[in-house]
Amino acid sequence: MDMAQHLSETELSARILRHAVPKMSELNIPVTPNNYSVWYEYYLGINLDLKRAIDGLLANEVSFTATVCEGLFTTYIQQHSPEVVENVQIETQLLINQLLAKIAGMSHGNVKFSSSLKAFDKALKTNPSSEVLQQLVDDITTELDGIIDANIAMDQSLNTINQEVSALKSEMSELRSVVMTDQLTSLNNRRAFDEEVISHIDTFNQKEFESSLLVVDIDHFKKFNDVHGHLIGDKVLTYVAQALKQSVKGDDFVARYGGEEFVILLPNTGIDEAKIVANNLRQKIAKRNLTIGKEKKLPLGNITVSVGCASLKNEDSKDSYFIRADEALYRAKSAGRNCVMVESESN
Ligand SMILES: Nc1nc2c(ncn2[C@@H]2O[C@H](COP(=O)(O)OP(=O)(O)OP(=O)(O)O)[C@@H](O)[C@H]2O)c(=O)[nH]1
């Protein structure tokens, strides 16, 4: 279930809270901040590795022992979003404590009421005087009023908690976006790319779906750094990043893989079409005579890129998919650069 897609922030937080706490109790998982972070992300549905791992454990009826819970937290939360964890831990603990205290208060009120009802029932069977009866009715009414008040207070607390969880959730998504963004170019970074590839592979396994991958590398990039300095090198990287972003459609996913290497995932695109996209962007970049600086223009000449293309196949993993496109890129470099190569037919 991917809740994140259809609901408003407040609804989403409330829904996750309502699913996560009962599920944890059903599985005998203590509601600690670490465990809650795991189940929060599980019901949020966008941490695909975590979701797959938990679904596997549930399908195999593995017991969620302290060690299993700790393993899930360390592998899929702490390493995945380390910046998020500390914040979430403190705030989640506070929220859960508040919630549990309220729930405990409510059930205490209900137990008391139910024993008053039993006493009332028993007294009725003994033919009580009208004074005694009146006293019993008064007692019950007082307790009922108490329960109604507690219900109202509970509703208010839940609203407050929902709002706080919602604020926490948007803080989390802001942090997530920082963690997923390349600071120099503002493109998606490698971590975001890894998640996107996994989602392409999932979609591919579930329905008819084509996906192609371009690996784009700036030719002789080192010379920009050597001749003009690192800062100009950075500007060239930013320029190419923007050019790539502007050369593709909205659904296409552009990321900086590292150094002067970029990746573009093209959903619903076969290899022939991917090759056309690759050649278009290559030509667009090569055509421009780049200068840097507004008043004193520094000529940098033509920048060219080499591109390797692959398309997703059965049994592909994130790594095998990337490696095929990267090998094609290597052949483009060997063939003289400023060209596009497609994965070899034998692969
Ligand atoms: N300015 C800048 N340079 C970087 C950054 N990341 C990597 N580099 C540089 O990119 C250069 C890559 O050089 P090479 O791997 O030799 O590749 P190349 O010069 O592009 O040559 P080919 O790929 O073979 O065409 C190295 O000098 C790195 O220091 C960065 O963030 N900023």
From TrEMBL:
Pfam families the record matches: GGDEF
SUPFAM superfamilies (alphabetical): Nucleotide cyclase
Entry GO MF terms: diguanylate cyclase activity
Gene Ontology cellular component annotations, sorted alphabetically: plasma membrane
Top-level EC class as recorded in UniProt: transferase
Cross-referenced SMART domains: GGDEF
Listed CDD domains: GGDEF
Documented EC number(s): 2.7.7.65
An individual GO BP term: negative regulation of bacterial-type flagellum-dependent cell motility
Cofactor: Mg(2+)
Residue stretches making up the GGDEF domain: 209-345
Superkingdom as given in the UniProt entry: Bacteria
UniProt catalytic activity: 2 GTP = 3',3'-c-di-GMP + 2 diphosphate
InterPro entries (alphabetical): Diguanylate_Cyclase, GGDEF_dom, Nucleotide_cyclase, Rev_trsase/Diguanyl_cyclase
Protein name as catalogued: diguanylate cyclase
